[in-house]
Write a sequence for this structure.
C-alpha cells in the first residue's frame, strides 16, 4: 500500500513593508487555502517577513522571531498539519541566523539555519551568520531534510541529507529574476541526483528593496518530474506524492549505490569575518602546541601543577601534539567518553590560502586518560573552534593586548583568564609547529582560576580585542556517552 502525502508549496507575493500582523494574516489565509485543498504538509518561502532584501530591518525583525514561531505553531496545531515556516530572521548569542522551523501541530520537530549565504548583489553575508549543521529529521511521514534558497547550488549538502536518510527535502526560497532557469534546473537536479521528493516554495513578484522574485514554485518526484508547478503569480501549489516512490526509484536505478567518490578527504571549516565573505578552510593538520609560555618559570610551575594531578611532564618544552584533522569541529555539542574531560581556552592560528587568521577554541581533553598518555587523551576528544576569525594583519600591531577568558556552567562561572602576551608570539609558535597551509594550531593555555579542573559540561571561551573593542566567543556542551 502506497504512502501518499498531499503537499503544498505556498508562493507568496512580497510582504515587505507590511506590519507583522498583516503578514501573518496573509500567511494564515494561504495556509488555510492549502489545507482546504487537502494539504497535510505546507511549505512557505524564505524570509517572507520583513522580506529577504530588507537587510536593514533584519535586526528588528529578529526581535519578532518568538511571535512568528508562536503564530506558525498555532496555525499547524489549528489545522493538524506539518508546517514548514519558510524561514525568518532569528538572533542567538548576538548573531543573526536565517532559520527554518518545521512544526507538527504545536510541536517543533526540526530546525535548520541556512548554511550558504548569497553575496551576489546581496548583503546576506554581512548581516547573517551561516549555520553549520545539516538537518534531517524524523517526522510522522518519514525522514525530511531542510534547505534554503542558495543552498540549491551546493549539491554536497543535499547528498549529506540523502546519506542521513532523507526521503523528502523542503526548500524555502526568495529566488530572484532573471535566474529562473537556474532555479528550476537546480531544484530538479537535486531531486534527480538524490532520488528524493523535493518541495520548493519561492516568493514571487516585485520587492521594495531588491529585484523581483521569480516564483515557479514546484514539487519534484525522485525522477525529477515536476508533478506540480506554479508560474509567476501568487499561488498555492497542491499535489499528492507517493513516498514509497523513493524506494522504488532507488531500487530500479541504483545510482546512489554506484557512487565511487564519497566526500572530502579532509574536513572543511567555514569562519565568518567582519565585513567580508566567510573564510573557507580545508584542514590538513591539527597541531596542539603546549607549554608555550614566554615565562619559563611560569611554565615550570604549570607543569608542576599538572604533576600533582598525576600527569607526567613533557619530554620537551614547548611540545607539539598532532591530532587527526577530523578532530577539529565548530559544533555546539561534542560527545565524550568518561566524566573527567574538560575544555581549556586557547587562541587558534589558521594557516589558510588567504593568509594567517586568528580565532579562539578549546583543547578539550580527557583528564583521566591524560595520566596514562597525553597524546591519546588529546586524540580521543574533539577540539572545538569558534565560527569567526580575524585576519592576522588586523591584530598584529596590538597582539599582546588581546585577552583570553573562559567560563564553565550555565551560570558562566569564571574559569580561565590570561593575556595572550603570556604565550610565545604566534610567529615563534608557527615555527615550532612547522605549520604549512591547511594547518590549525592551538597556541597553548594556562591554569584555571580555581586551581584545578572543573568538569562541568558547559564550556565557553572568548578572545577579546580591547583596541578594536570586539570579541570572538563560543560555547559548547560536552555530552557523556551512556555507559562510560
Amino acid at each position: 500500500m502506497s504512502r501518499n502525502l498531499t503537499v503544498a508549496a505556498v508562493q507568496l507575493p512580497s510582504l515587505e513593508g507590511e506590519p507583522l500582523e498583516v503578514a501573518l494574516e496573509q500567511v494564515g489565509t494561504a495556509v488555510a487555502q492549502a489545507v482546504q485543498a487537502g494539504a497535510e504538509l505546507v511549505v512557505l518561502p524564505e524570509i517572507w517577513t520583513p522580506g529577504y532584501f530588507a537587510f536593514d530591518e533584519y535586526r528588528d525583525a529578529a526581535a519578532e522571531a518568538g511571535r512568528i514561531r508562536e503564530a506558525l505553531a498555532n496555525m499547524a496545531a489549528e489545522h493538524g498539519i506539518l508546517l514548514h515556516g519558510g524561514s525568518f530572521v532569528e538572533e542567538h548569542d548576538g548573531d543573526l541566523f536565517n532559520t527554518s522551523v518545521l512544526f507538527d501541530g504545536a510541536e517543533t520537530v526540526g530546525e535548520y539555519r541556512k548554511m550558504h549565504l548569497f553575496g551576489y548583489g546581496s548583503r546576506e553575508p554581512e548581516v547573517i551568520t551561516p549555520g553549520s549543521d545539516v538537518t534531517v529529521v524524523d517526522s510522522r511521514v518519514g525522514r525530511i531534510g531542510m534547505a534554503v534558497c542558495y543552498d540549491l547550488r551546493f549539491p554536497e549538502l543535499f547528498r549529506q541529507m540523502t546519506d542521513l536518510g532523507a526521503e523528502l527535502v523542503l526548500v524555502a526560497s526568495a529566488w530572484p529574476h532573471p535566474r529562473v532557469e537556474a532555479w528550476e534546473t537546480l531544484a530538479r537536479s537535486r531531486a534527480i541526483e538524490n532520488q528524493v521528493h523535493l518541495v520548493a516554495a519561492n516568493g514571487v513578484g516585485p520587492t521594495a528593496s531588491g529585484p523581483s522574485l521569480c516564483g515557479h514554485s514546484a514539487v519534484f518526484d525522485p525522477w525529477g518530474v515536476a508533478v506540480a508547478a506554479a508560474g509567476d503569480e501568487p499561488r498555492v501549489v497542491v499535489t499528492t506524492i507517493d513516498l514509497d516512490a523513493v524506494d522504488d526509484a532507488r531500487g530500479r536505478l541504483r545510482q546512489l549505490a554506484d557512487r565511487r567518490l564519497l566526500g572530502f578527504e579532509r574536513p572543511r571549516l567555514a569562519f565568518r569575518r567582519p565585513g567580508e565573505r566567510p573564510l573557507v578552510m580545508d584542514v590538513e593538520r591539527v597541531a596542539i602546541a603546549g607549554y608555550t609560555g614566554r615565562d619559563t618559570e611560569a611554565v615550570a610551575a604549570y607543569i608542576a601543577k599538572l604533576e600533582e594531578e598525576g600527569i607526567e611532564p613533557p619530554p620537551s618544552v614547548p611540545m607539539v601534539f598532532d591530532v587527526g584533522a577530523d578532530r577539529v569541529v565548530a559544533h555546539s555539542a561534542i560527545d565524550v567518553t568518561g566524566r573527567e574531560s574538560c575544555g581549556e581556552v586557547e587562541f587558534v592560528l589558521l594557516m589558510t590560502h588567504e593568509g594567517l587568521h586568528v580565532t579562539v577554541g578549546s583543547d578539550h581533553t580527557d583528564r583521566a586518560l591524560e595520566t596514562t598518555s597525553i597524546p591519546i587523551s588529546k586524540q580521543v576528544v574533539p577540539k572545538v573552534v569558534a565560527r569567526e576569525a580575524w585576519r592576522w594583519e588586523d591584530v598584529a600591531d596590538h597582539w599582546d593586548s588581546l585577552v583570553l577568558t573562559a567560563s564553565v556552567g550555565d551560570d558562566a562561572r569564571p574559569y580561565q583568564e590570561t593575556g595572550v602576551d603570556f604565550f610565545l608570539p604566534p610567529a615563534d609558535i608557527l615555527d615550532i609547529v612547522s605549520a604549512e597551509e591547511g594547518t590549525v594550531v592551538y597556541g597553548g593555555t594556562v591554569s584555571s582560576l580555581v586551581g584545578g579542573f572543573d568538569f562541568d559540561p558547559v564550556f565557553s571561551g572568548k578572545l577579546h580585542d580591547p583596541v578594536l573593542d570586539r570579541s570572538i566567543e563560543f560555547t559548547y556542551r560536552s555530552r557523556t556517552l551512556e555507559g562510560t
Q: What stands out?
A: The radius of gyration is 25 Å.
